[in-house]
Amino acid sequence: MLAFHISKMVRQWIRGHNQQVKQTDKGVRILPFLLPTQSPWLTPIEPKWVHAKKAIVEPDGVLSAKQLAERICAHFRCSYEPHLAIVEKVA
Predict the structure, then answer these.
(1) Where are the domains of the chain?
(2) Residue 3 pLDDT > 60, yes or no?
(3) Which of 82, 23, 75, 18 is nearest to 49 (CA)?
(4) 85: exposed, middle or buried (C-beta count within 10 Å: 0-12, 13-18, 19+)?
(5) Alpha helices in 1-91 (DSSP H)
(6) Is residue 18 classed as helix, strand or coil in its secondary structure?
(7) 34/18 Cα distance (integer angstroms)
(8) Which of 5, 11, 20, 58 yields a CA-CA distance of 20 to 30 A from 81?
(9) How far is the C-alpha of 16 from the C-alpha of 18, rounded, in Å?
(10) Taken in order 27, 28, 34, 35, is the CA torsion positive or negative?
């Protein structure tokens, strides 16, 4: 869970919002529910990542970045786009 999801500022905002909704009877209340930090069964894409990892990764070897990217694109049927290169210029 990201820290800002449970930060004091966010909790105060939700509390104020809910009080305003209750007083004006306009809008909807927000009821936050904290989920476990490791909850793959609550994230629909997790099974896809598991199957992709099994199909792409070499159990006994290390792939280069390009090989990995090509296998990912082949598995998900997307086109391969070269990674951006960010050149830092020092003045």
Answers:
(1) 1-34, 36-81
(2) no
(3) 75
(4) exposed
(5) 8-24, 46-56, 65-76
(6) helix
(7) 17
(8) 58
(9) 5
(10) negative
